[in-house]
Amino acid sequence: MTATRAGRRRTAGLAVVLAAGLALSGCGHARPELEPGRAAAFQREVFAITQAVAAGQFDTAQAGVQRLRTALDLAADDGQVSAPRFRVIDTALDQVTTELATAVQQRDAELAAAEQAAADQAAAQQAADQAAAAQTGTQTAPSAGGTGGGSGSGGKGNGKGKGKG
To answer: Phi and psi (nearest 5°) for 136?
Structure first.
């Protein structure tokens, strides 16, 4: 699970970079590059994405990124985000999306490997059980030329009956 944890940290780190970009959105400009209300909403979404990543809930994080991207597009359409700020945020969202996809692939590969290992272990155990049963069966089975020597009737007959009942 080490790769998944590293992916979570990397993705969470990108989300923090995205949040920092949002926080600095209006510094030094007469008109903010991102309207304060939108910036606050974006920051809340980034926080939710970061929490989802930290919890390993990549599907939730991906949905959050999509919501944030939609909100960014709407803000751009409404003139509430400048073109340069849009590009910075959009690029950060692309990076987070890529990192999430990588984290999901790593998680899926780890799950598949764990499932395969469990299946291999179960098959090995089954083979060992069958070998043990076969070994036990050959040790306790009667030999073919045993001492009974009869036809199953206590050794008293020759297998030819007289028709009695």
So the answer is: -65, -40
In single-letter form, the type of residue at position 103 comes to A
How far is the C-alpha of 151 from the C-alpha of 156, rounded, in Å?
8
User: What 3-state class would DSSP assign to 155?
Assistant: coil
Number of neighbours of residue 69 by Cβ within 10 angstroms: 17
Q: Nearest Cα to 70, choosing from 42, 100, 47, 43?
A: 42
pLDDT tens digits, 85-144: 999 999 999 999 999 999 999 999 999 999 999 999 999 999 999 999 988 876 655 555
**Token pair belonging to 106:** 């790593």
Q: How far apart are CA 8 and CA 56, in angstroms?
A: 7
User: The whole model's pTM is what?
Assistant: 0.60
Q: Which two tokens stand for residue 50?
A: 């970061």
Give the number of other CB atoms < 10 A from CB of residue 89. Answer: 25
Rounded to whole angstroms, the Cα distance separating 155 from 146 reads: 12
